[in-house]
Amino acid sequence: MKTALITGITGQDGAYLSKLLLKKNYKVFGTFRRLSTPNFWRLHYLGGYDNVTLIPSDVQDSKSISEAIKKSDPDEVYHLAAQSFVGASFDQPLQTSDITGFGVVRILEEIKKYNDKIKFYHAGSSEMYGNVKNIIKNEETPFHPASPYAIAKLFGFWSVNLYREAYGMHATNGILFNHESPLRGLEFVTRKISNGVAKISLGLANDLKLGNISARRDWGYAPDYVEGMWMMLQQKKPDDYVLATGESFSVKDFIEEACNIASISTSKIKSTKENFRPLDVDHLKGDYSKAKKKLGWKPKTNFKKLIKIMVEEDISRWERWRKGEYFFWDAITSGEDSAIISKKREKSKI
Question: Among 122, 127, 146, 273, which one is least packed by beta carbons within 10 Å?
Answer without folding.
Answer: 273
